Amino acid sequence: MTKIIDGQKLAEKIKDKIVKEIVKLKGKRPNLAIILIGQREDSCLYVDLKEKEAKKIGIDTHIYKCRSDVDESEIFEMIDYLNNDKIIDAILVQLPLPAGFDTDGIIRAIDKNKDVDRFHPHSLETLFKTCDHSNVLPPVFEVILEILKDIECNLKGKKICLVCNSDIFGKSLAKVLTCRQAEVDIVGFNDRRSANKTKQADILITAVGQPKFIKKEMIKKDAVIIDIGITKQGKKVLGDVDFEDVKGKAGFITPVPGGVGPMTIAMLLKNTVELYKQRHK
């Protein structure tokens, strides 16, 4: 019987812990700045959710909305302003950016000590240099570890398959998992090895944005499946995994929606508080 991982419930537990940390700050509130470029529907939704959840737990948000045709130089000026603003503890640029923007350059422009997504080159360099990943993990990586911890899945010796199209994402996550003594394979959406690798995996993590791509014949019986992929089709939100097809064969699975999404927002807020604490000692 497949067990469905309740991401909303786990997210509430994480936020409860964050509230306790904020109470210890004795009235001081962490401040998160979010830059949104363009009107992409899912990005607007995510920013609204982040703002809503932040306010619930006592984090102040500063939202900067820009048109998709904004001059890139204005974005760099905005980031420089926020880097030097003593009020702001954490900065997030909502991804993906519209076509034509220098995503890597924009991420590099964020002060490494305010990079809440933890994909700044300095954060990645720290991640690759050591297996001590305290305070440097991207929120989605923290979510994966939290899920595996909650279901009491020991990573030592486990075969993990990452299905993703981002080199930085795949290699960075693989580093985090191999540090915990897992065996990791990375395959892309169009990789001919993908079906062979996925059905050998004890843990399958997918993030390609291809609705219902993963079928039951592609997974190992009783595998843990963590579905990060999200695609909107009309009013429906779909994951990379054909949920109904694999249900009954998988051991554990995260649903879409209601799985990784709520937890990622919670971990983003956790990182915001951690950055506040680091800045204010």
What does this structure look like?
The chain is of the alpha/beta class and about 280 residues long. It folds into two domains: about 25-115, 3-Layer(aba) Sandwich (Rossmann fold), CATH 3.40.50.10860; about 140-260, NAD(P)-binding Rossmann-like Domain (Rossmann fold, 3-Layer(aba) Sandwich), CATH 3.40.50.720. It is built from ten helices and eleven strands. It has helices spanning about 5-25, 40-55, 70-85, 105-110, 120-130, 140-150, 165-180, 195-200, 245, 260-280, and strands spanning about 5, 30-35, 60-65, 90-95, 160-165, 185, 205, 225, 230-235, 235-240, 250-255. The strands form three sheets. The chain has a six-stranded parallel beta sheet. Strands 3-2-4 form a three-stranded parallel beta sheet, with helices on both faces. A two-stranded antiparallel sheet has the order 9-10. α7 links the parallel β5 and β6. It is globular.
Please describe the structure with a list of short key phrases separated by commas or semicolons.
three-stranded parallel sheet; 10 helices; Rossmann fold; globular; alpha/beta; 281 residues
What overall geometry do the principal axes of the alpha carbons give? globular
**Percent strand:** 15-25%
Instruction: Give the C-level CATH assignment of the largest domain.
Output: Alpha Beta
**Roughly what is the average pLDDT, rounded to an integer?**
94
Q: What's the name of the CATH homologous superfamily of the largest domain?
A: NAD(P)-binding Rossmann-like Domain
Order of helices and strands: EHEHEHEHHHEHEHEEEEHEH
Described by strand count, sense and barrel closure, the largest sheet is:
6 strands, parallel
Indicate the low-confidence ranges by residue numbers. Answer: none
- Coarse structural class: alpha/beta
The main sheet orders its strands as 1-11-8-7-5-6
- Tally the structural domains: 2
Please provide the count of β strands: 11
Give the fraction of residues assigned to helices: 40-55%
